[in-house]
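User: Design a sequence. Structure:
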């Protein structure tokens, strides 16, 4: 509205600018492959922190009864497939779907064992989840990084928020404590960020960068 009012000089100029804005805003909505990868990684982790769609509150049909988990958290992909992507709770992982096409993966997450619907996820969300499953999830069981390089990355990328000792954000435990307690989830969040929090995601950079930072953070003070 405001833009329109200040552009009354000539209806034509106004219309041209408006058309330009419309074209720009529709372009800005389409995520790049890198942006989709991060969106997919976050939806996998904890979709209801960031979704614009429906949030399920009942227990997921594939959650084993003896797992002791009920309610909305059972709909997090990570609850069943883990942050090592190799599976949790006796359910297999997602690494078997590495490299599969988006259509194949989307068919799996819409199947009767999964039941994710378009009331929950937009088309772009489904594409983003598929991108993450196909290309983002990797076997992390044998990864180890260069601690010295990781320190350089930490002091330049992370320390502004976390401090050089990882203790500056006081409403969470020290970074060193979190990473040692939950190493798989921490690497996931270094790559894809913590859903709903103001963390950068490193996944557009080579995997080595995240692994180096991760290895260094394990050496930070834990209290
Ligand atoms: C409540 C548990 C549960 C949740 C939550 C869940 N899954 Fe699954 N998933 C399963 C089960 C069970 C299978 C089938 C494993 C089998 O065939 O034995 C499966 C299989 C898969 C496979 C096929 C793996 C392969 O090796 O081919 C993919 C990919 C997958 N899930 C992705 C997802 C994604 C993405 C999400 C979140 C949007 C998700 N799953 C959420 C239980 C779950
Ligand atoms: C812009 C600020 C910012 C930057 C830069 C940043 N973080 Fe964070 N980080 C946060 C916030 C905010 C949280 C969530 C705090 C909370 O849970 O209360 C967080 C949480 C974390 C957590 C805990 C995640 C969890 O599972 O709860 C780890 C580990 C972490 N950051 C590591 C890093 C590393 C490593 C880097 C550099 C690659 C980094 N962060 C860069 C703001 C930042």
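Assistant: Done.
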């Amino acid at each position: 509205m405001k833009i329109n009012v200040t552009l009354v000089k000539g209806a034509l100029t106004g219309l041209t600018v408006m058309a330009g804005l419309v074209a720009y805003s529709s372009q800005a909505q389409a995520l790049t492959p890198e942006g989709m990868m991060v969106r997919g990684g976050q939806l996998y982790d904890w979709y209801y922190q960031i979704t614009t769609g429906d949030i399920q509150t009942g227990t997921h049909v594939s959650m084993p009864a003896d797992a002791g988990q009920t309610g909305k958290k059972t709909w997090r992909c990570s609850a069943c497939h883990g942050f090592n992507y190799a599976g949790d709770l006796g359910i297999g992982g997602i690494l078997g779907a590495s490299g599969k096409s988006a259509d194949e993966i989307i068919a799996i997450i819409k199947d009767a064992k999964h039941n994710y619907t378009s009331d929950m996820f937009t088309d772009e969300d489904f594409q983003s989840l598929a991108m993450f499953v196909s290309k983002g999830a990797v076997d992390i069981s044998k990864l180890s990084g260069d601690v010295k390089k990781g320190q350089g990355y930490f002091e330049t990328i992370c320390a502004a928020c976390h401090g050089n000792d990882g203790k500056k954000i006081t409403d969470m435990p020290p970074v060193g404590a979190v990473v040692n307690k939950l190493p798989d989830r921490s690497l996931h969040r270094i790559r894809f960020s913590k859903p709903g929090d103001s963390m950068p995601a490193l996944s557009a950079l080579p995997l080595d960068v995240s692994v180096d930072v991760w290895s260094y953070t394990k050496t930070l003070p834990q209290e």
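Residues 157-158, 160-162, 169, 171-172, 175, 178-179, 185-186, 189-190, 194, 197-200, 202, 213, 217 surround heme C (ligand 2) (CB under 6 Å). The radius of gyration is 21 Å.
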